[in-house]
Specification:
The protein is an alpha+beta fold. It has one domain (about 25-170). It contains 4 helices and 10 strands, in the order ββαββββββββααα. It has a 5-stranded antiparallel barrel. β9 and β10 form a beta hairpin. About 20% of the residues are buried. The model is unreliable at about 1-15 (pLDDT under 50).
Length: about 170
């Protein structure tokens, strides 16, 4: 196989490695008290530091991560958001999300600082019982999203639920 693929509309052939790059990239920015984008949990496969304020994290397919975005202006907070996302395989359907390329399967999407804090506390509670938040059942993150969207309290994630999820995952093709 050669190192190039079909020509792009502009700029000539695209390097073969870029076409087959399976990573999902998340652009993070940190400007104290102005823009603060960070990853709350999730195992990045690679980190690229662009400068002291910006970096890009790369996630392998099927990795689950929490992406938190907060920004303010002179009058206060203008955005507070947390998204829990599963990085997708190439060719798999996905949803677009700012600063996430190409996108991912959004398991949870919450806006507004009080609700974002509730999700962060929920993550803390899961980690307190010894479970990595990125290993939690995707259905649980959907449950948290749906309950919070309906202004209800989500149910706690338990060790029993987690064991059942792991067993289901073992037997699924």
């Amino acid at each position: 196989m050669t190192g190039t693929a079909a020509p792009r509309e502009r700029g000539g052939p695209m390097p073969f490695a870029l076409i087959h790059d399976r990573m999902t990239r998340v652009e993070l920015t940190w400007i104290e008290k102005k823009i603060e984008y960070w990853i709350r949990f999730g195992q990045a496969a690679n980190e690229q530091i662009l400068d002291r304020r910006q970096r890009v994290l790369s996630f392998r397919p099927n990795t689950v991560f929490a992406f938190v975005r907060w920004a303010a202006n002179d009058f206060g907070t203008i955005i507070s958001r947390i998204d829990i996302v599963r990085a997708v395989e190439p060719g798999e359907a996905y949803q677009t999300l700012p600063f996430v390329r190409p996108g991912g399967e959004i398991l949870l999407k919450i806006e507004g600082w009080p609700k974002v804090e509730d999700v962060l506390r929920h993550v803390d509670a899961i980690e307190a019982i010894g479970i990595d938040a990125d290993a939690v059942s995707p259905e649980h993150w959907r449950h948290v999203h749906n309950r919070m969207a309906a202004a209800h309290q989500p149910r706690a994630y338990t060790l029993e639920q987690h064991r059942a999820f792991l067993l289901r995952r073992k037997v699924q093709p």
